[in-house]
Design the sequence.
DNA sequence: ACAGTGACGGGTC
DNA sequence: AGACCCGCCACTG
C-alpha cells in the first residue's frame, strides 16, 4: 500500500465525501498533489467502482455527471445523487458550488 | 515498441 | 460563452 498510495488516497477521500455533497476529480487530484493528473483520479475510481467508493459523488469541474456512462445503469448515478438530496438536471448538478466539498479545504 | 484513448482541467482562439 | 488544444499518466490494441 506504499506504491499504490495514489489509488488508496483516492478511495479514502472519495469515501469521506459527506452525505449530500460532491467533489470534482481535479479537487481530489489537487489534494493528492496530482492537480495535472485529474484523469488518473477517474481511472482510479474506474478500477475501484465499489460500494465503499461513492464515485457517484465525484463529478467533473462543471458538475456534470460525466462518469454516469461507467455505472451499471445509465441513470443510477443520478438516482443516487438525487436520493441524497442533490438536484441533478440533464446530468448536471444544480447548486454545484453549494454542495461542493473540497478535501484539501474541509478535510 | 508505438499509437490511440480516456470518469479532467486549464489556457487559448 | 463556446470550441479547440495541450498536458498528465495509465491501459489496450
Sequence:
Amino acid at each position: 500500500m506504499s506504491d499504490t498510495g495514489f489509488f488508496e488516497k483516492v478511495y479514502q477521500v472519495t469515501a469521506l465525501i459527506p452525505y449530500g455533497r460532491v467533489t470534482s476529480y481535479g479537487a481530489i487530484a489537487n489534494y493528492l498533489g496530482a492537480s495535472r493528473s485529474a484523469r488518473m483520479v477517474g481511472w482510479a475510481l474506474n478500477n475501484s467502482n465499489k460500494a465503499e467508493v461513492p464515485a457517484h459523488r465525484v463529478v467533473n469541474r462543471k458538475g456534470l455527471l460525466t462518469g454516469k456512462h461507467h455505472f451499471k445503469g445509465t441513470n443510477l448515478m443520478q438516482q443516487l445523487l438525487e436520493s441524497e438530496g442533490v438536484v441533478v438536471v440533464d446530468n448536471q448538478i444544480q447548486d454545484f458550488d453549494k454542495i461542493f466539498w473540497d478535501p484539501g479545504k474541509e478535510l
Observations:
- Residues 5-101 of chain A form a domain with the Arc Repressor Mutant, subunit A fold (CATH 1.10.10.10).
- Residues 24-26, 29, 35-46, 55, 58-61, 65-70 of chain A lie near DNA strand B (CB under 10 Å from a C1').
- The beta strands of chain A are 23-24, 58-59, 88-89, 92-93.
- Residues 27 and 102 of chain A are 6 Å apart (CA to CA).
